[in-house]
Amino acid sequence: MTVVIAAINGKGGAGKTTALMNIAGEYALRGKSVAMIDMDARNNLTTWWTDCHAKDAEAEGIEVYSHKTTKGLERWMEENARAYDHVLIDTPGEDTSIVDPVIAWADLVISPIQPSKREVLGAIDSFENVVRVNGALGRHCRHGVLRTRITVPVRHTELYRKIRPIVEDKVGTYLFRTEVFERNVYKDIHNGIGTLQMQELTEAITKARRETQALVEEVDELLTGKALKGRAE
Ligand SMILES: Nc1ncnc2c1ncn2[C@@H]1O[C@H](COP(=O)(O)OP(=O)(O)O)[C@@H](O)[C@H]1O
Ligand SMILES: [Mg+2]
């Protein structure tokens, strides 16, 4: 069965594309076939892929498609999705018209946040959209909030401490235990050098790889229903 994962947060640029690149790289490394769909008119994902191609650094097992319209997405999903183990859909920060159609296909929506009020609110919005679309279509798409670009000083802020009680207790969605730290390699991979998993194993890369493995394990747990929250029902 094809698993569809979308990255959505209408307020912010906290790392949707980066998170999907890393998750895609991890699945590909595990021998899965991965399609990535770029729904963002800024084309970050598509540009990354073109740059990777130019540098002969395409990741085996990953294909990237640019389909910016919802119609294009529908057609692509109907015709091609079942050929892949994973379809990862990247979405724009602002264009809300594509959010519902993307959720309608997704098994899991990940909302990356940096610890800023605006991005937390954006993630809550995304969760509410998932709940609404689930209700309207009788689907069971899950939702999780992913903390990204975390630094040690950030962890000492009041907002950081409030994230878990807000996300899990008040809103009632899932907060990934895995946090994505601020790391240079996550910036570097945007420059067409392939995926994180293709980089030479330095100490820094090893840490990023571990973080990503933990994230993918959590994603899989959430999808198989082992995690209690994130059901968005
Ligand atoms: N964990 C991280 N550590 C360092 N830089 C990051 C991290 N996540 C994202 N970035 C940087 O922030 C920028 C925005 O991230 P991106 O994934 O493109 O966000 P979005 O897709 O949500 O707009 C990227 O250029 C990337 O270099
Ligand atoms: Mg992006």
Note down, in words, how this protein is organized:
This protein has 233 residues and is α/β, with parallel strands linked by helices. The chain has a single domain (3-224), classed as Rossmann fold. 47% of the residues lie in helices and 15% in strands. It is built from 9 helices and 7 strands. It has helices spanning 16-29, 44-54, 70-80, 99-105, 117-137, 152-155, 158-171, 184-188, 203-224; strands at residues 3-7, 34-38, 62-66, 86-90, 108-113, 142-147, 174-175. The chain has a 7-stranded parallel beta sheet with strand order 3-2-4-1-5-6-7, with helices on both faces. The radius of gyration is 16 Å and the shape is globular. The mean pLDDT is 94. The structure holds adenosine-5'-diphosphate and magnesium ion (MG). It holds the Pfam family VirC1. This is ParA family protein. InterPro entries: DNA_Partitioning_ATPase, P-loop_NTPase, VirC1. It comes from Borborobacter arsenicus.
Name the helicity range: 40-55%
Order of helices and strands: EHEHEHEHEHEHHEHH
User: What Rg is obtained from the alpha carbons, in whole angstroms?
Assistant: 16 Å
Structural class: alpha/beta
Question: Which CATH architecture is right?
Answer: 3-Layer(aba) Sandwich
Instruction: Please name the CATH topology.
Output: Rossmann fold
CATH superfamily: P-loop containing nucleotide triphosphate hydrolases
Mean pLDDT: 94
Quick one: biggest sheet?
A: 7 strands, parallel
Number of strands: 7
User: What is the 3D shape?
Assistant: globular
End-to-end distance, in Å? Answer: 22 Å
Name every ligand kind in the structure.
Answer: adenosine-5'-diphosphate, magnesium ion
Question: In what order do the strands lie side by side in the largest sheet?
Answer: 3-2-4-1-5-6-7
Count of discrete alpha- or pi-helical segments spanning 4 or more residues: 9
Total count of domains: 1
* Relative strand content: 5-15%
CATH class: Alpha Beta
The low-confidence parts are none
